[in-house]
Amino acid sequence: MTRNLLLRTRPSLRASRPHVPPTTPWHLPHRPYSLPSQEASLASLPPIDPSALTITRTTTPKPILPPSDLIFGRNFTDHMLTLEWTSSTGWHPPRILPYQNLSLDPATCVFHYAFECFEGLKAYKNRDGAISLFRPSKNMARLNNSAARICLPTVGDGKGLIELIARFAAMEERFIPAARGYSLYLRPTLIGTQRTLGVGPPGSALLFVIASPVGPYYPTGFKAVSLEATSYAVRAWPGGVGDKKLGANYAPCIMPQLQAAKRGFHQNLWLFGEEEYVTEVGTMNFFVAVRDRETGGKELWTAPLDGTILEGVTRDSVLALARERLVPEGWAVRERGFTMGELAAAADEGRLLEAFGTGTAVVVSPVRRIGWRGRNVDCGLREGEEAGDVAKRMKEWIEGIQYGDEQHPWSFKIR
Ligand SMILES: Cc1ncc(COP(=O)(O)O)c(C=O)c1O
Q1: Would the pTM count as exceeding 0.70?
Q2: Number of separate domains in the chain
Q3: Which domain holds residue 150?
Q4: Whose CA is nearest to atom 2 of ligand 1?
Q5: What would the pLDDT profile of 364-387 be if each residue is shown by its tens digit?
């Protein structure tokens, strides 16, 4: 199906998908790329009420680890935030409790049919001890999208949950070192808790938030990674759920990651379709900086949000900063479909300037090379260089906002 035919049959796509070259993989015109969340069940029962919060403090506070011992996602704070939900009564009063095991019947639906979605965001402490979150409303919007798609309750406008997360993070502030690169990783998790083997929408759910103190992803500075272009396994597909943060999207990606590691690569570069469209890298969004073949102008590309790409908060931030700060320098910023072949051609012609992944855990992760069809595609870093110019500047700008060096509306002050 050519794009022209596609546009004739689905005129609505024309308005909603700008900046798209004729090579974009929309060759399945009658299938939506992603089920809009409003079509799934949305709860209209009592909303989350932060004023009903009760707090039970631990009697056995944990020791604080030296910052150098922090390993991502291994250590957790003293408490957890929990909210139960039932289809008859809506959200129950929120509770902060000592960190503890969950007790669930073996027939609970999350264990059998993967009613689970999650979020990842961080609380940052600056030199003066002030704590803030970074664009938490984006995480709330994405949580709603994920939850609604698997018939779990949504969190309304997210303001109540943000307030609760802020209270929780402030309570755990002794775990956050006041140094650049350190933070408290927050993991809101929503599961279906109905005790049944029947396949249907869960009548009850549990939302919990746990927190893990984390150190800089690259303690000794950037380290560029290598990627294996992967098309034998597919992370996300048209009409699937790749744009939702469902736990079920992650487990199937581990085996290909092990395979890539066996061949000496750090991560998978997920390709899609016979055309080998470049989608995401590992659990990050993917950007490339290239020079246009005709004009020589510099362009920053990332895949469009076509339903197969997770809508990363960092991706959105990089795009916004690039439009604000790189475009005045002459850059063009494009959300566009591009293939591995295009990337390899740009590299061969010396037009691939740099490539990097983006995500909350790492901010930006520069890429040195991509293994593809038995060859190495060199991503533009010079010998001994670990990051390109755009990656370095983006990390600087985003961390500057996260750690309060730059006052910015994206920073949500906790205290
Ligand atoms: C598949 C995938 N893509 C991209 C991202 C980056 O998203 P964010 O920038 O919101 O962390 C993540 C991490 O959450 C992810 O799991």
Answers
A1: yes
A2: 2
A3: 37-214
A4: 283
A5: 999 999 999 999 999 999 999 999
Q: Which of residues 179, 214, 249 is at a domain's end?
A: 214
Position 219 in a domain: no
Distances (CA, A) of 341 to 14, 150, 335, 345, 378: 26, 36, 17, 6, 13
- Does a structural domain hold residue 21? no
Q: Among residues 163, 191, 214, which one ends one of the domains?
A: 214
In tens, the pLDDT along 386-413 reads 999 999 999 999 999 999 999 999 999 9
**How far, in Å, CA of 54 to CA of 69, rounded?**
32
Q: Is the CB of 120 under 6 A from ligand 1?
A: yes
Which residue owns the Cα nearest ligand 1 atom 3?
284
User: Hey, whose CA ends up nearest to atom 4 of ligand 1?
Assistant: 284
Answer whether residue 6 is part of any domain: no
Ligand 1 atom closest to Cα of 119?
A: 14
What's the 285 CA to ligand 1 centre distance in angstroms? 6
Q: Which CATH number fits the domain that encloses residue 269?
A: 3.20.10.10
Are 289 and 153 in the same domain? no
